[in-house]
Design brief:
It is built from 7 helices and no strands. With 269 residues, the chain is mainly alpha-helical. The C terminus is likely disordered.
Length: 269
């Protein structure tokens, strides 16, 4: 049963890919990627800002384990430095003690006095053997001291690195916290402004009405001008209806004077 379901799913995917290939051709992968990114951005854009603020706070809180781990690392490094400093002091003290003993034995060998301060007498051979053993031990202490001093330098570097890492984490947490608080304050300002503007008039509706009336006025003006131009260029002339109370003859005589009697009568229109 499971095999059949898987097989159907594979066949369905294959048919879907074939259909995309037939429709979009070589550009099918680009269309798929574009659709995926658009869907992802659409979903992301629909997430409320409050949710994003809470998510940012949770991610900042997730820095706490790293800070705690850094504190433990720093504490361990400081403890190791303190312990190693004590070991170095002890090794140096023991090495200085062996050095003084070697110098004393060497003086006895030079003077030939084989009676030591503890009342024990040694032969020349025994004295040389004792000096050789102490010298070997001194060299071991010297090498050990050098090794511990090198280790101390590395541990001190670790301490500095741990301190710098903690300071960086602390600064980042403070900066991110302040930025989130600023974003939340800005969101509250926007909400307050929107709430205050809830009962104001919609300027966009007024602007649309003004544009509509202006377009209507322009259209009427254009219609009037079309009629005027049509009468001028397409009509037979302008028909004038005179005022019946006007004395046209008197107006003509007043303007041009009386015509001579010998003048022919003007043609009738």
């Amino acid at each position: 049963m499971i095999c059949k379901t898987v097989k159907k799913g594979v066949v369905g995917l294959g048919l879907g890919a074939l259909a995309l290939g037939l429709i979009f051709g070589p550009a099918a992968p680009s269309y798929v990627r574009t659709a995926f990114h658009k869907a992802r951005h659409s979903v992301k854009g629909s997430v409320p800002v409050e949710f994003e603020i809470d998510r940012a706070r949770q991610e900042i809180a997730a820095l706490e384990p790293a800070i705690h781990s850094g504190v433990e690392t720093l504490a361990r490094a400081l403890t190791e430095v303190e312990d190693l400093n004590r070991e170095i002091a002890s090794t140096r003290e023991e090495m200085n003690k062996e050095g003084r003993a070697l110098q004393a034995l060497n003086e006895h060998r030079k003077t030939g006095d084989l009676h030591l301060t503890n009342g024990v007498s040694y032969s020349a051979k025994e004295l040389n053997n004792a000096m050789a053993r102490r010298m070997d031990h001194y060299n071991v202490l010297k090498a050990t001291l050098a090794q511990k001093q090198n280790t101390l330098v590395l541990l001190q570097k670790n301490v500095i690195s741990a301190q710098e890492g903690l300071e960086a984490l602390k600064a980042a947490r403070q900066d991110l916290t302040a930025r989130v608080e600023g974003a939340e304050a800005r969101l509250n300002q926007i909400k307050a402004a929107r709430s205050a503007n809830r009962y104001t008039f919609d300027d966009s509706a007024i602007g649309q009405a003004k544009r509509t009336v202006s377009e209507l006025e322009k259209k009427l003006e254009q219609m009037a001008r079309v009629d005027e131009l049509t009468e001028k260029y397409e009509g037979d002339g302008v028909t004038v209806t005179p005022d019946p109370t006007r004395d046209i003859s008197r107006e003509i005589e007043a303007e041009f004077g009386s015509a001579p009697k010998s003048e022919k009568t003007a043609e009738k229109f």
